[in-house]
Write a structure and sequence with these properties.
CATH class of the domain at 23-105 and 170-280 in chain B: Alpha Beta
Shape of chain B: globular
Helix content of chain B: 25-40%
CATH architecture of the domain at 23-105 and 170-280 in chain B: 3-Layer(aba) Sandwich
CATH superfamily of the largest domain in chain A: MetI-like
Radius of gyration of chain A: 23 Å
CATH architecture of the largest domain in chain A: Orthogonal Bundle
CATH superfamily of the domain at 23-105 and 170-280 in chain B: P-loop containing nucleotide triphosphate hydrolases
Number of strands of chain A: 0
Order of helices and strands of chain A: HHHHHHHHHH
Order of helices and strands of chain B: EEEHEEEHHHEHEHEEHEH
Structural class of chain B: alpha/beta
Structural class of chain A: mainly alpha
Largest sheet of chain A: none
Strand order of the largest sheet of chain B: 6-7-8-3-9-10-11
Radius of gyration of chain B: 19 Å
Strand content of chain A: under 5%
Oligomer: heterodimer
Strand content of chain B: 15-25%
Distance between the termini of chain A: 32 Å
Largest sheet of chain B: 7 strands, mixed
Distance between the termini of chain B: 38 Å
Number of strands of chain B: 11
Helix content of chain A: over 70%
Number of helices of chain B: 8
Amino acid sequence: MSRHAARYLDRALPWLVPVVVLIAWQAVVELGWVSSRTMPAPTAVGAAAWELARSGQLFDSLAVSTRRAALGFLFGGSAGLALGLIVGLSYWGERLLDSTIQMVRNIPHLAMIPLVILWFGIDETAKVFLVAIGTAFPIYLNTFHGIRNIDRNLMEMARSYGLSGTALFREVILPGAMPSILVGVRYSLGLMWLTLIVAETIAASDGIGYLAMNARQFLQTDVVVVTILLYALLGKLADEAARFLERRWLSWHPAYRKSEVMA
Amino acid sequence: MTRVTFPYRGTRRQSNVVAPETSSTGVRLGLRGLDKRFGATHVLDAIDLAITPGQFVAIVGRSGCGKSTLLRLVAGLETATDGEIRVDDQPAARHAADTRLMFQDARLLPWKRVVDNVGIGLRGRWQDRAREVLHDVGLADKADAWPAQLSGGQQQRVALARALIHRPRLLLLDEPLGALDALTRLEMQSLIEALWQHHGFTVLLVTHDVPEAVQLADRVVVLEQGGVGLDLAVDLPRPREAATPAVSAVEGRVLDRVLGRSDVPTSTTASATRSRTASAR
């Protein structure tokens, strides 16, 4: 019985601080210490979210933003992975491409927003392009790094057992680089939302960022807070997706294995 | 710690014999004027060595004497500066598939389960055979474990199984037991001896452990300054008990040579030593 109680307490403990903060926040607004225009109470934010959901605006914006993020990540991530593989696997690839990529990488991709707007206007392409640029480099760097750090001894062993070409790539190089590649994926997923937030806030006619900027003009602080929470939720979801991949593809790795008894 | 099993002490399993019987016998290995230089360093200087089929040869020497390089040359991982390596009187490259090397570290792919590590480089239906060789090295129950879940000794046994599944005719062992604790090491020595007696492959064992060399080998070769310092036939009955007078006498002679304590003639046989110690008793 007491062990049961202890386990529940253990599970509930991480939630204690957020719950206390929420209660305090509500109290502070109810007591009139903080204006609801500065910071609406949790109940007001909840009501705004409900209203947005009921009108369908919430899901429309969510769908638009998620599509942009996913497309940008797909293009950027593929490009980063492909370049990382080429530069990591071939001597000439590295000689020819790496320093160029390193130079381009040093341009903060958000600095390109004015140029991107000149090129593409404020339609979908501009946002997808920005997200793609933002997500390509972390995956490129980590793929390259992962391939270069594969244990030379394992490669020698695999070659002495007759592996070469695609078999060597599939059985040794790719799985060996995978932990590093997934670090890049996780980092890219963070940058994906960050880039999209900025792009949508500056220039958009729909999506979550547009919802936020529109609400700002009408002083709907509660809606602004809802959009911020939405971004937080989406970021968390992306991170969970990356962790899922890590658990699935790196189950051999002691650091990613969940509570399996060591023999 | 699991007990070492000696699967071949009793009846021999005939079920999955794929390769013809002749391929399980060892190769004849000949090194002629083998020379290896790394820049200005002369690692191996005109080594001549003739090893008969099925012979268990241990190569000992101080670190840096070139013994690992010798093994890597035979394995085809390095190319000789001069001289040649003949396997069954043919160029060694033609017998690459008959030759397997066990490294100092197990070198298992951490992202493959044990059974898949054993089957690396194989095509077709090898799974049953892989479980069989895992059984032979006493790890049948670990087939589906990850390498990281095994102890160092178990990992080396998987590496041994990985070599054995190819039915090698020449097994090259590069200090495979160097990193193991003393007890695991004794177990592995017995296992390697039992498997060698069963399969009859030729073995080239590089080690800096003189007792290990004398325990296992038909012949102990001491390398020094890039050349053969001593080539000693160990004519003692098996299984050899450690620390018996005959074994100790051979160990003493090898150690003397390795440490440069006396001038032993470079080619000799240890059976004379055995009769000497026997009469002394």
